[in-house]
Amino acid sequence: MSPSPDVLRSEIQAFFDDELPRVLDGVTGTVNRAKAWRSALFDRGLAMLDYPEELGGRAATKDEMQVWRSETRGRIPREDSVFGIGVGMALPTVRDHGSDALKERFIKPGLRGEEIWCQMYSEPGSGSDLASLTTRADLDGDEWIVTGQKVWTSGAHHADFAILLARTDWDAPKHRGITMFVLPMEQPGVEVRPLVQMTGVSEFNEVFLDEARLPRDWVVGEVNGGWATAVALLGHERQQTGTKSMSGATHSRSKAGRSPIPVAQLRELAERAGRREDPVIRQELARLHSGEQIVKWIGARGAHPSIGKLWRTKQGRAAADLAAALAFPASPAWGSDLSVDRNEADDYFAYHILNCRGMSLGGGTDEIQRNTLGERALGLPREPGPDRNTPFNDLPRN
Ligand SMILES: Cc1cc2nc3c(=O)[nH]c(=O)nc-3n(C[C@H](O)[C@H](O)[C@H](O)COP(=O)(O)OP(=O)(O)OC[C@H]3O[C@@H](n4cnc5c(N)ncnc54)[C@H](O)[C@@H]3O)c2cc1C
Fold it and tell me: How much distance in Å is there from the Cα of 241 to the middle of ligand 1?
């Protein structure tokens, strides 16, 4: 049953103050720490308060969710990003569009952190124009057989399952022949090859599918109705990569993920660079502080997720530009000295300076967010395209 806001507040505080430090004590490695935190959260009944009770949640009200957000701001361990795709995107889509059997099979283990997910949407020829994808799935008895190539698949190297889009009807128009599936990653037909980014870190991968198999009923939504579920998941993704990404721990110095550098860290950097009193730097810090607040408020007001994502991306670039200016000339050189007091923070800023450009792409580019806002929020005419009613087989391919 849903607790009162005050009871919930003390439960959350007790969990973060007393239980979590004990749970994480001595646990090393990102995935191990992520799993330890999630299972403790689930076992305390705090993993997903707004889920229905039968799925492991507490059917919390809006007020209770507000308590959750305010009590956890800055306290969620950074390792939780391992579950960004599963808990943040795939599971809510399965919850809203999956069969009872899929919900039963995947929601609780996913919320408890026992299974890690990745998202297999993008392909070498299909990014912004996602509906042009050519990975195919064909029904063969009780299984679907999947063949094709995916790319930029974040976290595929440690994922147990993928939320997959594949074409199941080649004679239908491109948006009407796609199906969403759950694909087990551990099988001979799935080959994951890491891609090294310019940060030196490998966060995403190429995935080659060669007659990979999945059960006939592991379809999320309707066969050939995958575009609707794909768009539903993208809504969760924009929220995830928008305002929600600002809620990570401000003291965390994670060289992973897509969060802007917190302003508190830029203030420390200005101090170290001896430029705290510089009026130009102060003005930029004030502007970034306002940006940080605006992103939080956009989240609290529940604005269209594309607005949050655009603001977060803009904040990420501006924060990285200020870090680059403060750390110059050391910042462009990976691993170089920023000051006599060299420490790993220098690598941390270099990472963000290089990584922030990718924030404008992952989860849909800035241009695509603007198109979405134009068409869906402002009601402007759709982008012209001759391909909406033509059978996919008759369209030119990328
Ligand atoms: C860090 C990161 C993580 C990612 N993780 C994943 C993941 O886990 N799973 C996954 O499936 N994908 C993932 N992606 C891929 C991401 O979704 C794509 O990069 C993105 O959708 C853009 O596609 P593209 O790279 O093919 O660029 P393109 O679609 O080729 O776009 C190239 C340029 O053209 C512009 N453009 C294209 N179409 C239009 C249009 N109609 N109007 C105006 N401008 C347009 C774009 O804005 C862009 O500037 C990730 C990407 C990054 C950077």
Answer: 14
